Amino acid sequence: VQLGASYDCSVAAAREVARGREAAAILCGADVDEVSLHPSSTVAVTLLSMALRGRFAPGDRIVVTDLDHE
Question: Does the pTM exceed 0.85?
């Protein structure tokens, strides 16, 4: 289903996604606009890394792990 389209199934799906964001916000103690849902953690981390690109300078430290979610 393509979210944001005008057909009935899309409208219903968008409502459910909004409800999910609201539930996640409550669970995390966050505002709804602070919650971002993605189809997978890989997509989420990729988008986050793209958003942060250019915000680090030589000598900055980034903590990573060799543990994988899969």
Answer: no
Q: What angle do CA 45, 47, 54 make, to 5 degrees?
A: 105
Question: What's the rounded Cα separation, in Å, for the pair 69 and 62?
Answer: 19
Tens of pLDDT, residues 8-36: 999 999 999 999 999 999 999 999 999 99
Share of the chain above pLDDT 70, in %: 96
CB 24 within 8 A of CB 35: yes
* Other residues' Cβ atoms within 10 Å of the Cβ of residue 57: 6
Rounded distance, CA 61 to CA 70, Å?
Answer: 25
Give the integer Cα–Cα distance in Å for 70 and 68.
6
Tokens 């899309």 belong to: 10
